[in-house]
What does this fold into?
Amino acid sequence: MTYTPQNILITGGAGFIGANFCHYWHDAHIDHRLIVLDALTYAGNHANLQGLESSPRFRFVHGNILDQELVEGLLREEKIDTIVHFAAESHVDRSIHSPDGFLETNILGTHTLLKAARGVWLDEQQHNADNCLFHHVSTDEVYGTLAPDDPPFHETTPYAPNSPYAASKASSDHFVRAYAETYGLPITISNCSNNYGPYQFPEKLIPLIIANILDGKPLPVYGDGKQIRDWLYVDDHNRAIDLIIHQGRRDEAYNIGGNNEWQNIDIVLKVCDLLDGIFSKAGEQMSKRFPNAPQVHGEKAATLITYVKDRLGHDRRYAIDATKINGELNFSPAETFESGITKTVQWYLDQEPWWRAIMDGSYQEWIDTNY
It folds into this structure.
């Protein structure tokens, strides 16, 4: 079917992928209205939406997806016909140490959104099943781990989550499916591989490595560093969600992958090589900006690599079989890893104030003061 949304509620729209999606969608669909709902927790950054808030087609709402009354009010007031649900606690390490927040946001928060959508859209008959959609953004981690020679994850791969984060996302996926089967709520689900690109919170591998090189800090690598991930540039992910919303089959899940498997240690070495090259070309300019970087002192970035104890339950390999979305929706990534990682490194160089504010705590102080 072909579906044309008009008024879209984006949960978690101030986070990494959500913010990139907001910028992408605002530019790609000039007739659509975007409402962002974000609690502005540690990973939600209001600055990620800079340039959008002056648009008459955009509204930011500071609030929590657990607030059902707020969500229902937005659905009615803004005549929302489409929910794109990004909001989630997403860092595996944090889920290992503090799993409760992952259950609250990822499971209870998703269920709150589903209840609100069912109540306003279906029970109050604001929409029917043909002119509304709940799109749920999930992860490949729900499938568990792969051995080196195992085939990639397919949409029919049984769920086998291994971390509290993955278990919470698997549970939310099941609730979304249950609301489709039980109540007739029109849904789609996407399970994506590891994203990278602008606005990614610097606790994740690629932005952490970039920032630590520039500050001359150790580059922590878990275990032997040979864990394998399939990497997807964030705007390729956004294009895929766009296709699913407009053309995807209802009540279906689609795996979104980059066809781009890398060992973690090779990702680290790639970023090291890119920054070594940038320093060698830029010379004094880079040295003044980043005086603690190893290149300033005649060393390579890779000298900062430090192997640390592997994290608990660390999945060895993820890989996505994207045959379904390729065949049904003609999707394939536009960015190669070479082009995507080059864009990403340059973005972090150009946006130093953005990640400095996050890493030194001043951004969170601003949030606490203003919200």
Q: What stands out?
A: The chain has a mean pLDDT of 93. Residues 7-197+232-257+315-335 form a domain with the Rossmann fold fold (CATH 3.40.50.720). The longest strand covers residues 133-139.
